[in-house]
Fold:
Amino acid sequence: MDRRRITKLGIKYLIACLLSISLFLGCKEDKQQPPLVEEELAIAEAPADVYEFGFNLNDFVVKRDTIKKGDSFGEILERNKIGYPKIFHIAEKAKDTFDIRRLQVGKPYTLLCTKDSLQRPTCFIYQPNKVDYVVINFQDSIHAYKRQKPIKFVEKEISGTIYSNLSVTMDSLHLSPILTNTVADIYAWTLDFYKLQKGDKFKIIYTDKYIEDSIYAGLDNVKAAYFEHNNEPFYAFEFVTDSVKGIMDYFDENAKNLRRAFLKSPIKFRYRISSRYNLRRRIAYYGYKVRPHKGTDFAAAVGTPIMATANGTVTKSTYAGGNGNYVKIRHNSTYETQYLHMKRRNVKVGQHVKQGDVIGWVGMTGNTGGPHVCYRFWKNGKQVDPFRQKLPEAEPISDSLKAKYLDFIAPIKVQLDAIPYDDEIFEDTINNNNNLITSNN
Ligand SMILES: [Zn+2]
Structure:
């Protein structure tokens, strides 16, 4: 994305958002400080310039409305005292930029009219969505063009302590599911979200997009994140590895790629591990005899998508007795994975799959007491515990980029480390601020 980071205003925000005993959420309140009194006096004489769509609105009589049922470009202009020969001429000249027949009911438009008694329209501006707008200017010669409203990027910091599981904790912080999913995706290879436990902590630095300061337009990116699980740190920093192709990846504080050859789980993070790989498992039903479990059971709702945990080729996709609907994938000469009890399969034998591709859906076919996927991990033809394997990085950073990366993340790591948790917040409230990053396209 092409964006210029122009200003970094240190606007102070009020942050005392204690959401629960163990939670702290920074930067959700956008309360700006009141303007200085001297400034108000200085500009009291003339109305302040108001720019929108690239015009100073003070130069015009501004008429705003939305497209109504039965409205057309011609009727709108005619209502505003422009005759038909001219309307045809305008539509003809504008057609390469915008087809005036594409006006949609309910979308806003603006007419900029002369400030004299005639209030003659000189400009028609149509907004097909929050960001884009089309200008048809017929003040002198007729010209039409498309533009985008400036987007403001607001960097935010958040920290929290896990008191239940990740999604519950993130939900209670009123964070968008998109942010939760993005963070879960960043750590999909390195953290087992099921194993996150009460007292584990996290911090995230991310950027939200706003149009005209106030209209929320979604998550832009996650710049850095930190999880503390069992007192072990898990850092993640976003870094562009190929600026030409626009490829970015997440690496840890030692420049190790967070992506691995295998995902930790074939299910996105909303699951529960109901049974682990255990060669000495004893089951009451069988009179406490040893019944080894060579798979890992991920319990999830029927219909939850099941993902290939690594790139590979499907070697089996069939229905068989106790396994029910199952899929097996060969990844290379060493590793294979297998997924059992599917409700439905989504791949055929011989098909190439990529890591994260949906290969089927959770069900309870075959020998199973409840909906889950039994995930089996094969190394050299033997079933092993995937959680005990040291799996290779997906794509290690190149030596030439490594030094650059470490320089790049140094200040971000300082920023991340300085984000306080709830118990530190009271002394620190005053020092918290968001960094505003504005941009014009
Ligand atoms: Zn199983």
The longest strand covers residues 215-229.
